[in-house]
Amino acid sequence: MAFKTEDLKKAYWRDNLKIVGVLLSIWFAVSYGAGILFVDQLNNFSIGGYPMGFWFAQQGAIYVFVILIFVYTRLMGRLDRKYGVEEVDEK
Amino acid sequence: MDQQTLIYLVVGATFALYIGIAIYCKAGSTKEFYVASAGVNPIANGMATAADWMSAASFISMAGMLAFMGYEGSVFLMGWTGGFCLLAMLLAPYLRKFGKFTVPEFIGDRYYSKTARVIAVVCLIMASLTYVIGQMTGTGIAFSRFLEVNYNTGLSIGMVIVFIYAVMGGMKGITYTQIAQYCVMIMAYTIPAIFISLQLTGWAIPQIGLGSGLVDGGQLVLDRLDQVLSELGFSEYTSTAGLSTTNMFFYTLSLMIGTAGLPHVIIRFFTVPRVRDARSSAGWALFFIAILYTTAPAVAGMARLNLIDTLGATSETAMVIEERPQWFKNWESTGLLSIDDKNQDGRANYTSDPATNEVNVNRDIIVLANPEIAGLPSWVIALVAAGGLAAALSTAAGLLLAISSAVSHDLLKGVFKPNITEKQELLASRVSMAGAIALAGYLGFNPPDFAAGTVAIAFGIAAASLFPVLMLGIFYKRCNKEGAIAGMITGLVVNLLYVFQHTGWFFIEGTSFLGPMQANWFLGIEPNAFGSMAALFNFAVAIIVSNLTPPPPKYIQDLVDEVRVPVGAKLAPDIH
Questions:
Q1: Do A77 and B220 touch (CB under 8 A)?
Q2: Domain assignment present for B469
Q3: CB of B297 less than 8 A from some CB of A
């Protein structure tokens, strides 16, 4: 068993779900939100010469996706260390 | 040196490289054959995943689709990238922790059921085989176009190359060839894009160029594009008019879930040493993919603008047919461009009305002819040829490995002959790889009528059948054998029924009972976009059935607890 108590196990998993929940909300907001559902409203503004909704759909969402995965990697690494469940290198 | 010789030289050099890697990376154990000994560096795996993922469709066809669909094409851009977030956060690290060789193996163990494992194999083979047909036809077409050989010869050359490095090296050989193929692909894609962006806007970064002003006059590229397209009667490039938001929403979701559920992508994350490497590797994969995917809209917009400038935006300025440029004549001979001077005025009138339009443009021309339109040197054209071939071969190899490991590891070792030795299984995996190549080749020589629509169906199947039970297996401890089996079957059947009822049973024309009419679409969702809806059915059925039947045994619940934490992952014992 990786955890000392059942409570720690639950707390680790809850924190994990919280991280994923927040990051996937951003994932949803930039693609489905800005790129599809609110594209017409955002197209009234412009960013770097693109209509803003169009930019999110064809550029911005992809940049945010990449950043989200690296942020996830960092946050999960920190969480693993906090609960002492990170992998140890045997070499 | 003439163009054709140069193409032979560049393509030949890349093939020599792939085969050289194959000889260097011969697989000596099943662990090397299936998962490259789980010893691949996460950045290297990211690059290999990018090549595995980006097929001939991404390399050759996507920019063309964007160029002619405008904003609507965003579905592919977001759908084929956003799935990596789901993969990174919901599946890859946990499946890596589980530490086995194939996707059906996880399903079989987690749901303590050989039946579930076999159903997963069926779903995997259906998704991967429909996908690989598209790659084989793509390989044949790319070879025949660039090497000026006929389609069957082209396809045979492609099969031989894949045979050499996939049968010998397995995942190990495929991984290192895919890294080389990514490098070829990305150079071939970005170099013409940089030049075309410099010529039009003065910016070397195409992503910035598309948002900038034209060198000639200072008008914004996208404004200019909207303007000339509406003058010709097309809808504006950035316009959202006439599109169904619901359809775009579900289409994007289907591609994302399908991306995360495609086995040939998932197994790439079994090749890294640690759970945290699986997380970061997904980030690197998407980073390498994003370089191409954010360049594609720029290639699309700028090449479309260049094409219209060549053709002339009004009937007074329309291109005089006698004076058309040389590249135009070159591509006419391939049938991808054609002119039919209907009104006999000696000019090529390009309009949105099929009755008066005189120019037919195949969408693939946007990438294929891009270097010639921009007047780039002939080595760039040769590089594009090598890039297109790399894209098709790398994806085909990944798919073939997913199929062959499901056959040799899940069916043979897992179900029929559990007692075979390691050495026999390695031989079996080579034989099933050769068999998969032969089958894919057969389907490439005799493409079924529905070949064109198959790639979209592969995503639908992966989204509807595999993704939900994989996710529930990790995030929902209560999900049991009965729920998973019922869920997979429901998702698969619902998706196939919806596709078949609109396009004909097994795509045979005239057998559809609702017809392709948009009026009969459920909530206005097109068949290709239905995978996400079918996935919802899968989730719902799996959860309901699980709650009506006994919970999974204690040791399975402990297994889920194990999978949820990184510590204790078996480190690869034989990393050199």
A1: no
A2: no
A3: yes
